Amino acid sequence: MQVNLAEAVALLKAGHVVAIPTETVYGLAADARNESALREIYAIKERPAHNPLIVHIGSSEQVLDWATGFSELAQKLAAVFWPGPLTLVLPARSAVSSVVRAGEPTVALRVPAHPVAQALLQQSGLGLAAPSANKYTQLSPTSAQHVLNGLGEAVPVLDGGACQVGIESTIVAVDGNQWQLLRLGMITEVALTAVAGVPQQIQLRPPKAPGQHLLHYSPQTPLQLFTSRAALIDAAARENSCAALLLGDGLIEHCTSFNVPNNPVGMAEKLYDTLHRMDALHVEKLLIEAPPRTVEWLAIHDRLARASHSLN
Ligand code: AMP
Ligand code: MG
What we know:
Layout: E1 2-3, H1 5-13, E2 18-20, E3 27-31, H2 35-45, E4 54-56, H3 63-66, H4 72-81, E5 86-91, H5 98-101, E6 106-110, H6 115-124, E7 128-129, H7 144-151, E8 157-158, E9 170-175, E10 178-183, H8 189-196, E11 223-226, H9 229-238, E12 242-247, E13 256-260, H10 264-279, E14 285-289, H11 298-307
Parallel strand pairs: 1-8, 4-6, 5-9, 11-14, 12-13, 12-14
Antiparallel strand pairs: 2-3, 3-7, 4-7, 5-6, 9-10
Bound molecules: adenosine monophosphate and magnesium ion.
């Protein structure tokens, strides 16, 4: 069911969940201090209780409402990348619900840039826990229609158009003046290192962390990655029914072809929408032309590998 901004604010303040737009993907939002609302998120997503939620806040001035410290390094990253697709994992205040933290001593915080998400945060005055608005392990939604298709009419959805970043935020754990990448996103390790001034410290946090279930972000249809167009064309000839995702121009015979921009920012924006559309064809196989394994493509590579179940 579609709701407008005022209705979304009222629902959130009353302890209900609402699917909301952010620049990364649509989130299933609830008041991060309301435990029954938080439990509703886990129930709708069928998400295991040990997988913590990101808390979205209106500005970095609210960090100390949730975290016990905001180190110089964390402040530097926030100053450059907020509002935007960066999540900081910081030591949590004890008052932060263990439901949102999933029992971790840390809390994950992000200031989203999407104007509708910002308006919701300002008008509600809440911190909003908001994991992606899809069932656990399935493809993330990047439009209101994806949310409706995945979660059904019962969940209120605020339509803010198509997400511009298109994949989930980069997650960084910060402990004092050390940091570690917990999830790849469009803000790259190179960009983070340039701002941090020091390289990341591996194993700062136990690798239990983030969204890193192997079957994350998966379409229903089996999906295979190809490192060359020629190999993809060969495979397509052997399939009964298939759809192909191609970097840049082109068309594959006997296969419904989908073209995405051949650059990381352009492809990230279209990636999930394209996979949703390919999945809806109910063909036997999705064939994907994989981008090169260079730094700027790493986050997209990560999502494709998870979607193909080939990451280990
Ligand atoms: P999602 O909201 O589904 O994009 O996923 C958020 C991810 O952030 C989860 O998979 C978490 O594991 C990670 N995350 C959230 N809170 C914490 C935390 N307190 N410590 C470490 N990782 C976290
Ligand atoms: Mg998710």
